[in-house]
Amino acid sequence: MIMALTFGLAPVSSNAASHREAPLISMDPTADISDFFMFRSYEAGREDNIVFIMNVIPGEEPSSGPNYYQFDPNVLYAFDVDNNTDGKADDVRFEIKFKNEFRGINKDAGLFLSYVALPPITALDGAGSEGLGMRQSYTVTMVRRGHRKVLASGLFAVPSNVGPRTMPDYEALAAQGLYDLGNGARVFAGQRQDPFYIDLGAVFDTLNLRRYPLPLLTVEEDANDTANPFGVDMLSGFNVHTIALEIPSDWLTKDREGADGTAFPTLGAYASTSRRAVTVLFHEDRVKHEGHWVQIQRLANPLINEAIIGTKDKDRWNRLDPKRENQFLDYYLNPRLALALELVYGVPAAQTNRTDLVDLLLKYQPSDERLSELLRLNISVAPTPFGSQMRLGPLAHDAAGVSTPDAAAWPNGRRPIDDVTDVAVRVIGGPNYVGALAGDGINTDDALLTGAFPFLATPFDGFNRVHQNPVP
After folding, report:
1. What is the pLDDT of residues 447-466, one digit of tens each?
2. Residue ranges of the domains in the chain?
């Protein structure tokens, strides 16, 4: 079954999620990447493009005024891509940098609110933006083989969804934050609903999943991607800040050919956040940031630092380049999550010599010598239409138990719908957990995902926010 997960990843020529997952980054939410998605676009007419999505600031409470949430102008947000399968994501890079602006009636009148309906905010610039007191602009830069190119600057980030009086038509406002970068490339930066779904409280209460004695789904429950059989989605009702890039595939490939024509269809990538090496605080409000950029978090495959890397190494893992993953090899060969599953549930788990996990998560081919923790995507695999996507990807099946695999799902890239929690529990647990359909009982999110860029749902507003889905 593990081998089935590797289909579609190898080059044609030869054949979560991370919410507050490490001690230091948990104290730095604007640099904390909660999720990284990479997939071939499934928006009609745009299937030759590749989408990268980075979510930061996990657990945004929608009503958290008066300042709400913004990207950090002192953080460098980036996507790094490997297009020659050498395990080094240094071939193509996209950098996103933000700048704050205090403006309008909020500044002139010294108001205590960042956003105010004087008049209601209906625009990011010009008439209708007067109440947008805290506004962020940003620059997108592409780096390929050391050559830097500014794709766009002076773009506006979409603000937090305050409520219907202040922002009466939030989606119309958000639509103004969709920018064309030329040749089919697009970008969006702003608030969205958190698309990740998991029973966090149960998982981190020493795997106290909410079906006893064993957290097993029936075949019918497991095949239903629209209902939650026994879990509680603890991220329900929370938002995140999203950076989404849609990039033509021929900008990314080694030979500059598109997804269906390239001889080098497999990409590896990760998202990262960095800060300047030195911060100096002066009297009053002056702050100086200087020195080189230092990576403080990275994310490729979901749940790696959260559920595989040991706590004592989590901060160091975040700082290191993925190409140095050999330092953490023992965590993959002998996964502690498998040990925990067996101790809690008494069901034998595959605890040692997990070379299958090393091949799946750290290599393009089993013969590779370099280990690099990258999210890998074979862009020659056609995207699955939005309405036909299966949350379990290669483990998907129908209500009769007949296999119906979705080749465009994690670990072949990752889409917002993919149930990485259930897949990870089963794969890391081993054959007993795959066959028994173990899971956290959460099969769907309350967010209404869309089939169009930026693919994530409208964020909850501060006036009407709701959190927990009903307990079964």
Report:
1. 789 999 999 999 999 999 87
2. 3-436
